[in-house]
Structure formats: structure tokens, C-alpha cells
Amino acid sequence: MLVALLAPAAPVVQARAVTPSSGSSVSVEKRHPRALFFGDSYFVGGGCSPDAKQGMAYLAGTELGYRTTVRGAGGTGFVAANPEYGLPPYLGQIHDGALDVRRPSLVVIAGGSNDVGLPVDQVKRNAKKILRIARGKYPHATLVLVGPLDTYGGYDDSIPIRDALRSAAKGLHVRFIDDMTWVAGHDDWLCDDYVHPTYAGHVALGHRLAKALRKRGA
Fold first, then answer.
1. Inter-residue contact 10 to 46 (CB < 8 Å)
2. Considering the entire predicted model, what is its pTM?
């Protein structure tokens, strides 16, 4: 399964919640801390649901009370690039500033779906690099890694990626969320491409993501 090849990928997307204009920036940040979500089209949008502000990441952040920023690019991953749109893998996007956000209290990095079929050892190495970068930039933030979402079932292709990412997170004492089977039994949550969630699917997945993040200290 190579998600990047199965449906048009979303371009790089940045979405922000509206920041209140009244009061000092310090008091605003205390009342409504900032969250940064970074990932592939499941976070930034794709298929029949291209609007990141209606996506699972933005909805989860909003449910948890954060001013939410969503960054990333469809069809990309820890190793995977999306050459059709000229989009580099995660490390390239981070080099270009994808993780540059003002004092986030929560940083969530997700992916792996587009890395299926690519070298698992390289996926793990790159994931560790990215987690170290995120922790170095934001040492006081809650850092969470989310594994690949598999919309096909069977899971044989996704399990090695999921396990590699879980191992990378564990080795660095980073919280991990396994979302691989979240769509199981819910084909009605998927677009006609059977890859990307519908907006209704994103609502359900966003709530599930928020619950998982809350359990991990978000």
C-alpha cells in the first residue's frame, strides 16, 4: 500500500486557530495553549476532504482546548517524498520550517502510511531524528508520535512501520499512539478512494485522537 500513489495528495498546508485579540499574549497562551500537529494527508487533508480545519488533527486540538496549527504534506512521510507535487519527506519539510511555531505546549507528529514498502530501518532512523529535533526545539512541550492509519485492513504492510515507529518513540521516551485500526469496520468514514476520510470520518477520528492524546497528558 502506497497511499501517496492512490489519490491526489494535498499540498503543504498550514492551519491556525483564531488567536484572541484581547489581553496580553502571555495570558492568552496560559488560557489557550498552542498545539502543533505535523503529518501527512490524514492531518492536512486530501481526497474528498482537503480542508485541514475540518480534519482530525485540527478537530482534536480544538476539542482539547488548544490554538491549533496543522503542518505537513499529503503523500509524504518519514522517508517518502511526493515528487508529483515537489514535496520532500518530513525532514526536508522540517528543514524548510514546518516545525517553527511559537512555544507550542503540545507537539504531535504522525505518519508512516506513505512509507509502506520503503526501508523500515530508514523510517525508524528518520523518525528518531525528527523526534530529537522536536524535543530540542520544544523541550517543555508534550511530544507524541502517532503511527500509520491503515484504511485497507489486513495490516500486514503497516505493522512493520507501526512497530518501527513505536520502537523509535519508546527508545526516546516519547508517548506513542497506535491508530492503525481506527477505521476498521467504518468504510462509511472513507472517501470514494478508500484512502482518505470524509469530513464526517474526520469528526469521529478527531474525537478518538483527542481521547488518545488526553490519556497521554495533552
1. yes
2. 0.88
In the block, which residue shows the cell 511526493?
82
Looking at residue 19, its pLDDT comes to 40
User: pLDDT tens digits for 183-209?
Assistant: 999 999 999 999 999 999 999 999 999
If one counts every other C-beta atom within 10 angstroms of the C-beta of residue 135, the result is 16
Q: Helical H runs in 138-198? A: 158-171
Architecture of domain 3-215: 3-Layer(aba) Sandwich (3.40)
CA 4 vs CA 57, 58, 137, 168: distances in Å = 19, 21, 29, 23
Distance CA 153, CA 166 (A): 19
What is the rounded distance in angstroms from the CA atom of residue 112 to the CA atom of residue 192? 22
Using DSSP's 3-state secondary structure scheme, residue 4 falls into helix
Q: How far is CA 95 from CA 43, 99, 100, 134, in A?
A: 19, 9, 10, 12
Pairing of strands 67-72, 15-16: antiparallel
Taking each helix axis from N to C end, the angle separating 199-215 and 56-63, rounded to the nearest 10 degrees, works out to: 50
pLDDT higher at 16 or 96 = 96
In this structure, how many other beta carbons lie within 10 angstroms of the beta carbon of residue 124? 21
Tens digit of each residue's pLDDT (9 = 90 or more) over 125-160: 999 999 999 999 999 999 999 999 999 889 999 999
